[in-house]
Design brief:
Its main location: cytoplasm. With about 200 residues, this protein is of the alpha/beta class. Helix content is about 30%, strand content about 20%. The protein has a single domain, classed as 3-Layer(aba) Sandwich (Rossmann fold). The protein is built from seven helices and nine strands; from the N terminus they run ββαβαβαβαβαβαβαβ. α3 links the parallel β4 and β5.
């Protein structure tokens, strides 16, 4: 989706994650949701429109991304959704003072392998503070060489693979990209491997 007025591009991963959010809209009213690396914030905006209490975040070093979050909120009639600068891997006052959360959203945050450890550091910190929370994430398989399985194990996190067809996101217009090459999008839910000693 390209918005000519604002020049925003929504990547296929965001569309697939937004579809998952929409498919689970009945569970969202009153839930506290944080979107990380939000950019255009499609999944977070959908969650907010479905009644969740949403906070959008992107890197504090990328003011243009934070502005994209704000623009998306305004265009979608959500002027009161807070937008925070949160940089992955950095324990900042903003991260420390976050209210409790139930769901973390992240579309295509596993883009550059050099960021994976920082992302999981932040996710682990949030899940430790909110042991029953889940991280809903979609990612594009760009290389057969990388996997986050070993990092998840290192950070004592587990993941459940969610087949796209299970929430109607396997349609060509949702999960495909106009970019060259075939793009495989995956969805998973990450949570603490052990919570409350179970």
């Amino acid at each position: 989706v390209l918005d000519s007025q604002y020049g925003m591009y929504v990547w296929p991963c965001a569309v697939v994650l937004a579809q998952y959010v929409w498919a689970h809209r009945a569970s969202l009213p009153g839930k506290r949701v944080l979107e990380i690396g939000a950019g255009v914030s499609l999944p977070g905006v959908v969650a907010a429109r479905c009644g969740a209490q949403v906070i959008l975040s992107d890197s504090e070093e990328l003011p243009c991304c934070l502005q994209s979050c704000r623009s998306s909120c305004l265009m979608n009639g959500l002027p009161h959704v807070p937008v925070l600068g949160l940089t992955w891997g950095r324990v900042s006052p903003e991260l420390l003072s976050l209210a409790p959360i139930d769901v973390i959203l992240g579309s295509d945050v596993f883009f550059d392998p050099k960021d994976f450890e920082d992302i999981l550091t932040t996710i682990y910190f949030l899940l430790e503070k909110n042991p029953h929370a889940q991280f809903w994430t979609t990612y594009q398989v760009r290389s057969a060489d990388w996997s986050i399985e070993a990092l998840l194990y290192k950070w004592k996190l587990k993941n459940i693979h969610i087949p796209l067809h299970s929430f109607g996101a396997d349609k060509e217009h949702l999960a495909s990209s106009s970019l060259p090459g075939r793009h495989t999008i995956e969805m998973m839910i990450i949570s603490l491997a052990q919570s409350d000693g179970t």
